[in-house]
Amino acid sequence: METFDIVVVGGGPAGATFARIASGGGRSVLLLDGNLRGKPCGGLLAPDAQKALARFDLTLPKDILVDPQIFAVRTIDLKTARQRYYQRMYINLNRDKFDRWLLSLADSAVQVRRGRCTALDRTGGGVAVTYRTDAGERRTVLGKVVVGADGANSIVRRSFFPPLHTRSYVAIQQWFPLQEERCKAFYSCIFDPDTSDCCSWSIHKDDYMIFGGAFAPHGCRESFERQKEKLAPFGFRLSQPVKTEACMVLRPTGLRSFCCGGSGVYLIGEAAGLISPSSLEGISSAIVSAVALRQSLETSDPGREYLRRTRRLRWKLTLKNLKCPFMYQPLLRNLVLASGLSSIRLYDGERDSL
Ligand SMILES: Cc1cc2nc3c(=O)[nH]c(=O)nc-3n(C[C@H](O)[C@H](O)[C@H](O)COP(=O)(O)OP(=O)(O)OC[C@H]3O[C@@H](n4cnc5c(N)ncnc54)[C@H](O)[C@@H]3O)c2cc1C
C-alpha cells in the first residue's frame, strides 16, 4: 500500500494551510479533496482571518477579490421590520478562488489528489484511507498520521469519535444575476424568528447577489422559500436563481462541541467543530487550528499539545455564545436594534430610500 507520513482529508482553508506548513523535513504529505470547488460560503474574510493570514506575512492577490468591497452590514429583523447599519471590516472574496489560492501555496512536496474519502480503518502502521476518484476507481493509501480537515460533516470525525454536542443546521444559498434595479443591501444580515432561530444573509459578488440562510434540518427548504417571500417588501428580488447550494453548518454550544482528535487522527477547522456560533465565521479558526496542529506534531505528545494550543480558541468560540442572545433572542435583539447602539445613522435622504 502507498504510505504517507501524513494524509490530510479536505482541502478547504484548514487542510490547505496545514498541508502547506506540514511539508518539509522530508515528510511525505498527501492531501485528498473530494470537491475542490463549490463550497457554499458567504466568502467574507473577517478581521480575525485577515490577522491569521497576516501572521504568515501573506497578502491577497487582487483576482480573488470581488465587487463591491463592503464596510457596513444592513441588519434586518423581518418580524418587526426594524433595520440598522453597523460598521464591519470584511474583505469580499470569491471563495472558490480563495481556496484554490491557499492550496496553490503548498510546495511540490505535497501531493494533492482529487478523491472523496469513503472509509478509514486503523491498521498496525497507521490508518488506511480509502477514497474514490472522479473516474469511480477505489484506492487505499496508508497514513501514519491522518488529519481530518473535511468540514462540518467530517467522515474522519464520524469514523473515530463520538458525535459532537452541538447544534447543526442546513445552510442553503442561492445565486441571482444582478438586476438593473440593484437592491441597496450590498451585505445584509437577516433575522426571522418564524423561519429560523439562526440567521440569513445577502451579499453582492460581481454580477450576482447571493442569498443564503441557516435553517433547522427538518423542513429547511420550505423555511428558506418562506423567508425569501418575506424579503420582497425590503427590496429583494429573489426569483430565478442560477445556482442553489447547500451544506451542513455547526453552531457550537460549549466546550463539548469541539473534538480535536488524538492517537494519530486529528481534526482541524470545522471538522473539529471550530466555528463561531454567533457569526458562523470559520476561516480564521480553520487557519489557527491548522497552525496549532502543525506545531503540536513536533512534540512527544501531539494530542495533549494540540489540546493545549487550541484551548484559547475553544474558549473564545464558547464565550461567543454570550453574544448570541443579543443577536438571536427576538426580544433582546429588538431592544438592541431599537436603541441604535453602535449603529451607523444614515443621512435622512438615504433612510427614506430604503
Ligand atoms: C453558507 C455558509 C456561509 C459561510 N460564510 C462564511 C464567511 O463568509 N466567512 C467565514 O469566515 N466563514 C464562513 N462560513 C464558515 C466557513 O465556510 C467554514 O468554517 C470554513 O470553510 C471551514 O474551513 P475548513 O477547511 O475546516 O472546512 P471546509 O471549508 O468545509 O472544507 C472542507 C473540505 O473538505 C472536503 N471534503 C469533505 N468531505 C470530504 C471527503 N469525504 N473526502 C475528501 N474531501 C472531503 C470538501 O470538499 C472541502 O473542500 C460559512 C459557512 C457556511 C455553511
UniProtKB/TrEMBL annotation:
Pfam families (alphabetical): FAD_binding_3
Domain FAD-binding: residue ranges: 91-293
MF GO annotations: FAD binding
InterPro entries (alphabetical): FAD-bd (IPR002938), FAD/NAD-bd_sf (IPR036188), Geranylgeranyl_reductase (IPR050407)
Alphabetized Gene3D superfamilies for the sequence: FAD/NAD(P)-binding domain
Domain of life: Bacteria
Name of the protein described by the UniProt record: FAD-binding protein
Organism, scientific name: Oscillibacter hominis
Organism placement in taxonomy: Bacteria, Bacillati, Bacillota, Clostridia, Eubacteriales
